[in-house]
Every structure is written in structure tokens, then in C-alpha cells.
Amino acid sequence: MERRAVTLQRTRARAIVSDDFSAGEVLSDGVRAWLTQLPAYGGVAFLVHLPLLLLLPLRSLPGFLLVPIFFAAELLAALLVKAALTKAVLEARRGISSDFRELPEALRQHAPAVLAVGARILLAAGPKLLKLLLPGVAWLCETFAAVPAVVAEGGSSAAALRSSERLIEGARMRGFGVCAVIWTLALTLPFACGLLHEGIVTVSWMLVYLLTRALDTSLAAVLAATAYDHLLQRPQS
């Protein structure tokens, strides 16, 4: 507790606030933080993805059925990875190191709130995307920082969504730049790994696939937490 208090005081004292939000800085800082802690972050993300092995009995399904099932399972896993890593990333940016054993505990503690926020985002985004793509994408960008917000600030999922919308105001296009990198990786990896090719889903393939997605989702979680921290440093009107 003393270590955390001293670090928080040091953070408040530094008060070097960015005039703006830069997608390039978020990506640079996030990738650097991810590489620094890759064994821990990637390791816990891989553990989160291991239950997806239970999907192996479904491998005989045609691709148009198998892909949506994998996609839904991946969304759940990605949210759980954010629940495990967000607090550690935010503390690391303030000079507080996290032990690997703290990450599963963070997952247990924050998973319900993170899943609630994720569900609210997706339920609201679905009708928007069906009506017109742009409003749905805009909503996803506006709520991009909601998961880190609910972990860092606590409170309800509605409060986290309002916090994200407030923080991203005036920086939506730059926020989209960060989102675009994450979404591109998330959407292209299943196809790059050959998920649509029937008969390719073996145990060995599945383990390699889960390892790949663990790297992808852990990076996405780090970028989301880093973006949230950068947004906090923007002057608020």
C-alpha cells in the first residue's frame, strides 16, 4: 500500500499534461509496454484462451457456422484478457510493477464488471451497425475506453460508458486509429490461420491458433489501457 501511495503522489506531482491525444504515441507506448511484459501478459492471455479447446468437437462444422462461433468465443476471451491486464498496465505506467500471480486475481476481481460493459457496448452497437455502418463504428470508438474505465474507476457499466464518451470527445478520429489497428488484427488472424478451411482444425493447429490470439488480445488490452491513460492526461473542458 505504501508503495502504491508513494507512486500515486509522484504521478500527481509530475503534472506534465499532453495538449492532445496522439494515436501514434499510444501505439508506440503500448507496443513498448507489451514487449516489456510479454511473457506475463501473453502467458495469462493464453491461459484465458485455453478453454476454447472445448470447441474442438465442433471442427467438423462448415466454415460459415464455425467462424461465428469462434468469433463469439474470441470476443469473450478478449474481454477477459482486458479484465486481467488493464490494472497491471495502468500501474506499470505509474512505475508500479505487477507480479504474474496478480493477473489471475485481477481477472477474477474485474471480470463481472468488464463483461457487463462489453455486453452493453455490443448490444448497443449491433442495431447501429445493422442500420448503418458508420454510427456503429463511431459508437465502438466512443466506448473504446469503457473497459479500462470500469477497472480503474469502478462504478457501474453505465458510468464507465459515460466516462469513455467524455474522454474521447474531440479525439474520435485519433481513437479510431488505435481501434483500427486492433480490429484489423482481430479480423485478419482467423483467416490468416486458415480457420475457413475445413478439416484444418486439429489439436496442434488449435494450440498454435490460441497462442497467436493470446498475443493479439494481450496487445489489444495493453493498447486500450494505454489509450485510456493518455486520454486522462488531456485537458478536459
What does this structure look like?
The protein has helices at 2-14, 23-36, 38-49, 63-92, 102-131, 133-142, 146-153, 157-168, 172-192, 203-232. With 237 residues, it is mostly helical. It has one domain. α2 crosses α9 (172-192), α7 (146-153) crosses α8 (157-168) and α9 packs antiparallel against α10.
Any chance you could write out the topology, listing elements then pairs?
Blueprint (H helix, E strand, L loop, with lengths): L1 H13 L8 H14 L1 H12 L13 H30 L9 H30 L1 H10 L3 H8 L3 H12 L3 H21 L10 H30 L5
Helix pairs in contact: 2-9, 2-10, 3-4, 3-10, 4-5, 4-7, 4-10, 5-6, 5-7, 5-8, 7-8, 9-10
Question: TL;DR?
Answer:
The protein is an all-alpha fold and 237 residues long.
Distance between the termini: 32 Å
Low-confidence stretches: 1-19
> Total domains, how many?
1
Count of helical regions: 10
The mean pLDDT is 84
How many beta strands in the DSSP annotation? Answer: 0
Question: How does the helix and strand content classify structurally?
Answer: mainly alpha
Portion in helices? over 70%
Q: Describe the biggest sheet?
A: none
Provide the succession of SSEs. HHHHHHHHHH
| Rg for CA atoms | 18 Å
User: What is the overall shape?
Assistant: globular
